């Protein structure tokens, strides 16, 4: 047959999955072979990823994929969240559990970095927005620790999984750009930045690019998974957002995208970075994408805010001796009926980054800005979704202004596609049509790059996206309502909204 099957390993902040993509020249379908929870664990006060449990989920997923396909997989690709890493000893042993980017160990690291390299110079050299957890801040915070001192090698999370599967170390470029140690013009290491900060670049194995070979499965992996052939692992956009943007089913170049999930990543795809001082002040990032592209976007807190509210409400209910948990469908229906734009918060504010007490932090932000404090879960949910829609609009407006590009439609991909209220509010806020889908954009982008490498499909991003457009279910939302209400809500937040970190 002309159909090929690829396994996409896609690890997100709340769950991991192994998805089989079935690809033929005019056909593209997904089958979820395995989904498993990602449960971060606090140890001695530090928040860690439970990396071995995630790796076991990957092995179980590959086993399920082998069964589902009758052991006919062509290759495997891996994408995960960005910035985090594992440290290895010379013999390959993992020296410590990777620390979660939401851990507070980076508090104060930005000041240390700024003392060595002023923010304007750092931005001009890397084009990366300031997020307190960028790898450079983590490395500065870890300086002098036993693990970093002993480390022979540093592997970003997808590269670590890939190393365990194949024994071949490498550093995939799209994810490497989120370390803040890559120059987006040369798409190579920013050696002067590393020098200024005392970061040893020899910790990183050589760069690989999406489409490059990344080794073949080790014998022990074949034994664990029941796969019988030493399958190749192919480098894909190993940053989940890079793969998700490949998975945007755009048919014209003038689109904006919002990759939704734990985060909302909202912006534009460009062919060259924007490194102006204005862009830095607006805290826009230039992450590297597949096929020489640049993802010009801003991080917005995303559905994390709602997930954390639900966790808090469920904890309260459990404390009261009640076993019931939040019914998300009912909650979203109630939120849809709640007063629109009653109060909005700055969904870009790093104050919402850490876990715990989310409803309280949202209430505080409303109080601080002189707005009514949401009283019920439905009101809080409406506040979160209105705030996300407002932040989406602001990111897209800023991106168009700063890049000089025009936008005629907004694509929403990722888990937020299932949240029809968020999609409609985003269309209303932006005053633009929203095309929602696919939800599994990262897995699709991962599969498409593998399929192209295997020669099953050909072409650039426009051709890959045309295949998505013709095969994936999409839903369009037209803007409704009184657009000026969004302007007034934005004005209420006013200058408080300028991301503090950038200044
Ligand atoms: C989304 C994402 C974002 C990155 C954040 C932290 O899953 O990869 O792009 O900023 O997680 O790594």
Automatic annotation (TrEMBL):
It is an enzyme of class 2 (transferase). InterPro entries: ATPase_NBD (IPR043129), FGGY_C (IPR018485), FGGY_N (IPR018484), Rhamnulokinase (IPR013449). CDD domains: ASKHA_NBD_FGGY_RhaB-like. The keyword Kinase applies. Keywords: ATP-binding, Disulfide bond, Kinase, Nucleotide-binding, Rhamnose metabolism, Transferase. Its EC number is 2.7.1.-. It comes from the Bacteria. Residues 8-247 form the Carbohydrate kinase FGGY N-terminal domain. Pfam families: FGGY_C (PF02782), FGGY_N (PF00370). Residues 256-453 form the Carbohydrate kinase FGGY C-terminal domain. GO terms for molecular function: transferase activity. Belongs to the FGGY kinase family. This is Rhamnulokinase family protein. The lineage of its organism: Bacteria, Bacillati, Actinomycetota, Actinomycetes, Kitasatosporales.
């Amino acid at each position: 047959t002309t159909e090929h099957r690829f396994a996409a390993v896609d690890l997100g902040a709340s769950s991991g999955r192994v998805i089989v993509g079935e690809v033929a020249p005019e056909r593209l379908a997904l089958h979820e072979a395995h989904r498993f929870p990602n449960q971060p664990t606090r140890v001695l006060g530090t928040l860690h990823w439970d990396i071995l449990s995630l790796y076991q989920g990957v092995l179980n997923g590959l086993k399920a994929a082998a069964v589902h396909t009758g052991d006919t997989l062509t290759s495997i690709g891996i994408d995960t969240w960005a910035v985090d890493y594992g440290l290895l000893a010379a013999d390959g042993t993992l020296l410590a559990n990777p620390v979660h980017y939401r851990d507070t160990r980076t508090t104060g690291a930005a000041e240390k970095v700024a003392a060595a390299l002023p923010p304007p110079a750092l931005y001009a050299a890397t084009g990366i927005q300031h997020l307190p957890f960028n790898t450079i801040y983590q490395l500065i915070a870890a300086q002098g620790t036993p693990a970093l001192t002993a480390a022979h090698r540093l592997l970003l999370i997808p590269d670590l999984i890939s190393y365990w599967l194949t024994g071949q170390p490498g550093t995939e470029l799209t994810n490497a750009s989120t370390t803040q140690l890559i120059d987006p013009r040369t798409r190579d290491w920013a050696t002067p930045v590393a020098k200024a900060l005392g970061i040893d670049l020899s910790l990183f194995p050589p760069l690989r690019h999406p489409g490059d070979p990344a080794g073949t499965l080790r014998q022990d992996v074949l034994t664990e998974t029941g796969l019988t052939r030493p399958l190749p692992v192919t480098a894909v956009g190993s940053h989940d957002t890079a793969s998700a943007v490949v998975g945007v089913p755009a048919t014209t170049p003038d689109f904006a995208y919002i990759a939704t999930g734990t985060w909302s990543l909202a912006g534009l795809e460009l062919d060259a970075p924007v490194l102006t001082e204005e862009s830095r002040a607006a805290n826009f990032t230039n992450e590297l994408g597949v096929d020489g592209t640049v993802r010009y976007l801003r991080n917005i807190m995303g559905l994390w805010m709602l997930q954390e509210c639900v966790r808090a409400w469920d904890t309260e209910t459990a404390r009261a001796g009640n076993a019931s948990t939040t019914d998300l469908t009912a909650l979203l229906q109630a939120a849809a009926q709640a007063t629109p734009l009653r109060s909005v918060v700055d969904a870009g504010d790093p104050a919402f980054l850490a876990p715990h007490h989310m409803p309280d932090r949202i209430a505080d932000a409303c109080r601080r800005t002189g707005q009514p404090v949401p009283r019920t879960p439905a009101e809080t949910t409406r506040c979160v979704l209105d705030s996300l829609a407002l932040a989406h609009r602001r990111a897209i407006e800023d991106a168009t202004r700063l890049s000089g590009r025009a936008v005629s439609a907004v694509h929403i991909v990722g888990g937020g596609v299932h949240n029809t209220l968020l999609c409609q509010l985003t269309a209303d806020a932006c005053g633009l049509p929203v095309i929602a889908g696919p939800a599994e954009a990262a897995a699709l982008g991962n599969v498409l790059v593998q399929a192209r490498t295997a020669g099953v499909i050909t072409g650039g991003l426009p051709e890959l996206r045309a295949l998505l457009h013709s095969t994936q279910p999409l839903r369009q939302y037209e803007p409704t309502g009184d657009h000026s209400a969004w302007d007034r809500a934005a004005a209420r937040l006013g200058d408080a909204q300028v991301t503090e970190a950038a200044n």
